[in-house]
Amino acid sequence: MLAISVGKGFLEKQVKTVSPKDSIKVAHLPSDEESSEYLSKSIPLFTHASQAQYASLFTSLREESKITSVFMILLILSTMIATFGLFINSGSVIIGAMLLAPLMQPIVSLSMGVLRQDSNLEFNAAKTIFFGVTAVLFTAASVALFTPIETLTSEMSGRLSPTILDLFVAIVSGAAAAYAKSNEKIIGSLAGVAIAVALVPPLSVSGIGLGWGNWHMFSMALLLFITNLVGIVLAAAFTFVMLGFSPLKIAKKGIMIWLIMAIMVSMPLYSSFLKMENDMKIKKVLTNTEFVLHTHKVKLSHINIIHQAKEDELRCEVIARSFLSKEEKRLLKEKIQNSIAKKVDVIVTFRYRL
User: Where does the sequence pass through the membrane (predicted)?
Assistant: First the structure.
């Protein structure tokens, strides 16, 4: 038998140095018992998250819940783009602002904090959302003050009549956001969610109303944002439960609180929905009516009703064969108001048949 002594120095060189590992706070991750309980159950179309997915998602959400300079710069830039897009009435510019705005990130983080009763995650996300909303309102108001235009565009007015349908859109979008966030393979779909449920444009309209001193404009656009916020948080939290990120016994308290908030928000939204239904009836009546004004016959087209705090506006195009006299214009306004049984401020554009 041949024995070889390699020496102590050689053995010391072969010892591998173990590099320190990054640490992740897992205090609020589901326990092994919780994971086993959920993995033993099957939900159609939903797959339960693994422990690796838990750690990856929670780490990502904790980072996204914190307010950073990058977050604020992107948010302010996207607000400026959205505000200018609203002024020039350009849908494509507004869509670009939706894609750039990072406001969806802390909202999804808030939904997980609500779900897991994680006070630290909730506080950071809520703080980021608060300062983000404040920055958007201040930026949009500043642009409105220094822009020599005070015309309500169709893109602005389209965000002043939120209805219960907007809450449904926010709920579906919140579920889509949570599902996409939990799966890295489809996380790129979040861009589509950002377009589906606009966050910055209604806040920008609210800021413009603040800059113009228009309380009705400020409050109605802000209501649309609150609708989107509540719907996203509620639906995202529920979706995370379905995906197994929290047992229902922990999640039910947070979900119930936000469900109550959703019911409270839905009350004015349902009222707006009834108002929208009535507006559609008015448009149908006016479109199908031919008004006789002494020797002239006119029809209305492109009818739009804008609700204001004092008196609603009815904007439309009047199609006639020749110029109307002052008396005929007065008579037309009177007949329009009688047809809809409502006093409105009538603003028209005349078009003449040749």
Answer: 67-88, 94-116, 128-149, 161-180, 187-212, 218-243, 255-274
